[in-house]
Design a protein that fits this description.
The complex is a heterodimer. Chain A is of the alpha/beta class. Chain A is 44% helix and 12% strand. Chain A has two domains: 34 residues, no CATH class; 144 residues, Nitrile hydratase alpha /Thiocyanate hydrolase gamma (Nitrile Hydratase, Chain A, Alpha-Beta Complex), CATH 3.90.330. Chain A has ten helices and four strands; from the N terminus they run H-H-H-H-H-H-E-E-H-H-H-E-E-H. In chain A, the strands form two sheets. Chain A has a two-stranded parallel sheet. In chain A, strands 2-3 form a two-stranded parallel sheet. Classes of the chains: A alpha/beta, B alpha+beta. At the A-B interface, helix 2, helix 3, helix 8, helix 9 and strand 3 of A face helix 1, helix 4, helix 7, strand 4 and strand 5 of B.
């Protein structure tokens, strides 16, 4: 939530929200009972804020763009292939990769909750978990894409993947024109989180 | 809620991406994850607990409020904490048997990296193969009273084509009720938009779902 209004920001800082109070209450009780460790909580937050996030997925995509053999293996058995790069774990035990092409555009959603490939993309963004995205991505994916500024200009078919089981999906976006000859590191920098969910197309690089 | 009307536009966070939009989101997330390591419930039980929030609360709660409420409910249901403790915030019942399971900071990374795969060697024999046309059953838990299924309503009673056989996976409908993992074949099924929706945006678009064998019957 933006806090561009000073008064609002002030009110927020002195008066915690009900939800905030409830987190504090539950956390306090569990710590007092010795059932959770406050340093472990900090470690969990730190991992998903700083260590596990879309940079991981971007590395996978950049490698797939650069190395056809890697890409073939990624499309064949993504779980084993990304594990070789050290990406495995909670909410990423069964990975499938989906390649966007000139004829197919893949889009990932979880209509039942918010399933998402944590080891590759981290914690899902707010919009991915929103009622609007969960309700509409399966019924009107093209309108949803348009709201993200994505217009499919080549007459692509849309394939929406509803993550109803423990399989987690990673979209391999189309490599943008203008990136020929780029190093894997340079390519990693331009792969965005949304492009690996399917709600962005990477722009032509200058 | 897949297919529901009335939710309005999707509010993209482009240019203002945060892992946790509010500080307490991170706390709610971490408390939930850490509590899970106590080993008193499985993933399907925690999902089911969130689904069992009253529809009124489910509608008005923000995402992490749902997590928190689901966590509080399951902590009480599993007798890890009591309602009285939630009111007073002071420990009332002993929990010595759980202390050994408490997640320590030094173990966080390796514990999360370990994951919890749901594929199993054992289980039912696959009845379908890639290319088979199947029809889904009613989106209701057929096995255990009390709900929880991973077949969404919008794909209930619809026909699609199997595009992938994914081996046997833990069956959430039973696992959510501690009625056993009962692994069974999991398939990826492709449905045409025109089969799912009376007014499809584009009839040839596809929606893919991962569905357990017992949700499916031959066309």
């Amino acid at each position: 939530m933006p806090h561009d209004d000073l008064n609002q920001a002030h009110a927020h800082s002195v008066l915690p929200s009900d939800a905030e109070l409830r987190v504090n209450a539950l956390e306090t009780l569990l710590i007092r009972k010795g059932l959770i460790d406050s340093e472990a909580l900090d470690a969990i937050i730190d991992i998903y804020e700083n260590k596990i996030g879309p940079k991981n997925g971007a590395r996978v995509v950049a490698k797939a763009w650069s190395d056809p053999v890697f890409k073939a293996r990624l499309l064949e058995d993504a779980t084993a292939t990304v594990a070789e790069l050290g990406f495995y774990g909670r909410q990423g035990e069964h990975i499938v990769s989906l390649e966007n092409t000139d004829s197919i555009h893949n889009l990932v959603v979880c209509t039942l909750c918010s399933c998402y490939p944590w080891p590759l993309l981290g914690i899902p963004p707010g919009w991915y978990k929103s009622d609007a995205y969960r309700a509409r991505a399966v019924r009107e994916p093209r309108k949803v894409l348009a709201e993200f500024g994505v217009v499919l200009e080549n007459g692509e078919d849309v394939r929406v993947w509803d993550s109803t089981a423990e399989i987690r999906y990673l979209v391999i976006p189309k490599r943008p024109p203008g990136t020929e000859g780029w190093s894997e590191d340079a390519l990693t920098e331009i792969v965005t989180r949304d492009s690996m969910i399917g709600t962005a197309i990477l722009p032509v690089s200058e | 809620m897949g297919g529901r009307f009335g939710d309005g536009p999707v509010d993209s966070d482009f240019g203002r991406e945060h892992v946790f939009e509010e500080e307490w989101h991170g706390r709610a997330f971490a408390v939930t994850i850490a509590s899970g390591f106590l080993g008193q419930w499985n993933l399907d039980e925690s999902r089911h607990m969130r689904e069992c929030l009253s529809p009124k609360d489910y509608g008005r709660f923000s995402y992490y409020e749902k997590w928190l409420s689901g966590l509080a409910d399951i902590l009480v249901a599993k007798e890890v904490v009591t309602n009285k403790e939630l009111e007073t915030l002071s420990p009332d019942i002993a929990s010595e048997d759980l202390i050994a399971r408490v997640l320590k900071a030094k173990d966080v990374f390796s514990s999360l990296a370990k994951g919890g795969p749901t594929n199993r060697e054992e289980g039912y024999k696959a009845l379908f193969k890639v290319g088979d046309i199947v029809t889904t059953c009613r989106a209701e838990n057929k096995y255990v009273a009390g709900g929880h299924t991973r077949l969404p309503n919008y794909a209930s009673g619809k026909s699609g084509k199997i595009i992938s056989c994914n081996g046997n996976h833990v069956f959430p409908d039973s696992n959510a009720h501690r009625a056993g993992e009962l692994p069974q074949p999991l398939y990826t099924v492709a449905f045409l938009a025109e089969v799912l929706w009376e007014h499809p945006e584009n009839p040839d678009d596809l929606v893919m779902l991962d569905l357990w064998q017992s949700y499916l019957q031959p066309l």
